[in-house]
UniProtKB/TrEMBL annotation:
This is Uncharacterized protein. Residues 29-40 have a biased composition (Gly residues). Residues 43-52 have a biased composition (Acidic residues). Residues 29-52 are annotated as: Disordered.
Length: 155
């Protein structure tokens, strides 16, 4: 089984994410006490970015309001059996966050920033297509404006 990891820690706060599984039609968590649901395929990932109440706020660990963010972990399995594991960070005040300076992602790890509503989401992945596939499956973005909504920090 092939694994593709989407992992990073951003900002000065320590990420305490919720580990679960998005998909299976219900969006239910798997492994975090929220019950079943199983792992979905990319086609099942509409609304893949969790609602704000699915995040664990860790503002008390941040040094300033601009660094307040929360994180969630999720995974899905595609038709070929590849398991995608990713972390999504949501910043409460995206205008004040300089993620290109605070990111601890490996230099060769491609990741994108997504501005949706009043929050900034970060999705980390091994290549652009994987990140774009997840972003396209999310209801947080207009499907026709993926490239316009993603800022690539590394190539």
């Amino acid at each position: 089984m092939q694994r593709r990891n989407f992992i990073a820690a951003v900002g000065s706060a320590t990420v305490v994410g919720l580990t679960g599984c998005i998909g299976g039609g219900s969006g239910s968590g798997n492994g975090n006490g929220n019950g079943g649901g199983g792992c979905g395929t990319p086609d099942d990932l509409e609304g893949a970015l969790p609602d704000s109440d699915d995040y664990e706020q860790i503002g008390e660990a941040a040094t300033s309001e601009s660094e307040r963010f929360s994180s969630v972990s999720a995974s899905f399995e595609d038709a070929d059996g590849a398991v995608y594991i990713f972390n999504i960070n949501k910043f409460e005040n995206p205008d004040a966050v300089s993620t290109s300076e605070t990111s601890t992602a490996a230099e060769d790890e491609v990741h994108g920033e997504i501005v949706a509503d009043t929050h900034l989401y970060q999705i980390f992945g091994p290549d652009k297509e994987s990140v774009k596939e997840l972003a396209a499956a999310s209801s947080a973005l207009d499907s026709g404006c993926i490239d316009a909504n993603i800022e690539w920090i590394s190539e």
